[in-house]
UniProtKB/TrEMBL annotation:
Modified residues (4-aspartylphosphate): D53
GO cellular component entries: cytosol; protein-DNA complex
InterPro entries in the cross-refs: CheY-like_superfamily, OmpR/PhoB-type_DNA-bd, Sig_transdc_resp-reg_C-effctor, Sig_transdc_resp-reg_receiver, WalR-like, WH-like_DNA-bd_sf
Name by which UniProt lists this protein: XRE family transcriptional regulator
Lineage: Bacteria, Bacillati, Chloroflexota, Anaerolineae, Anaerolineales
Domain spans labelled OmpR/PhoB-type: 134-233
SUPFAM superfamilies with a match to the protein in the record: C-terminal effector domain of the bipartite response regulators (SSF46894), CheY-like (SSF52172)
Amino acid sequence: MSEKVLVVEDEISLQETLAYNLRKQGYEVDTAGEGQTALDKARAWNPDLIILDIMLPGIDGFEICRILRQEMSTPVLMLTARDDEIDRVVGLEVGADDYLTKPFSMRELMARVKAMLRRVRLIREEMDTTAVTAEVIIFGNLNVNLTRREALIDEKPIALKPKEYELLVFLAQHRGQVLTREFILERVWGWDFIGDSRTVDVHVRWLREKIEADPANPMRIITVRGAGYRFEG
């Protein structure tokens, strides 16, 4: 079955070019040119990947990403017309998985699409092959259930995005070790992820907000200056 890609872009010529090239690669493609249509199609079609422009009529890309991230874990590749760090950081904070600055080459976009969809396939394969017997990692009041793919604080489930959960598991499995941002990025996001280490910092901040008693003074995920992070449990 072909993987499904939703292209959200209001510039018709670019929308058609993206759709044409994605279909040539064998993907099933649908398109939207404004915010509400994008939300409706994402909910009804459940794509494997969303390519999302920031500047859209009606609801902008940031808000669309924020809304969808509360409802689904579909990876989002965000497009921005400016090489502006603020856009990239905000995009990551609202839940985008990667970003690409216009103008971009079609080869680079396809490389990112392939990398993101490959990661989706790997996650699904891992979920399909999970052992029936529950495996739980316990750190005080924090429990990570590898079979159910969930984390609990004081026996109450905490809402983790898929990448936050994967990051938590990876850190927990390397308790006490100093891990560089680059190593974390390679192992959690995949060696073919096209992005930078700030992605790790953003997700660590989100994770701290959910598992630390005082996120400003973390006791579980420790920053090691000049090196990376160390998980203390």
